[in-house]
Structures are given as structure tokens and as C-alpha cells.
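Extended Data, panel c. Modelled sequence:
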Amino acid sequence: MEDLFPFKSLGFEALHGDKEGLFSVKVDMQYRLEFSFEQNGTEQVITVCTLEELSNHYK
């Protein structure tokens, strides 16, 4: 997750409300990619990213 912070153009953010626990990055000015992270035990090295939704959230 921390690897996404340096890329300011991605607009990486944690979502809130009914999307609590999800994160998003910008695909372009109209779309964002929503996803979740899953840790494998206590290992910090292995992170599985699952695509939740590719949405036009401005509609």
C-alpha cells in the first residue's frame, strides 16, 4: 500500500461511508479504480490486490 503514496498523480485514497475498507486510484479524469488489500498472515511482503469496481463516480 505504501508503494502507491509517492505517485501523487494516482490520487490514491482510502474510501469512506458505504465503501469503507476500499481504496481507489485515478484511471483518468472520469474513472477511478476501486480495490481492497488482503494481508497474508503477518507477512508484510505479500499483498493481494482485488479489483472491486471500475466506475465513473462523477455520474
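Residues 44-48 have pLDDT under 50 and may be disordered. This feature is highlighted in the accompanying rendering.
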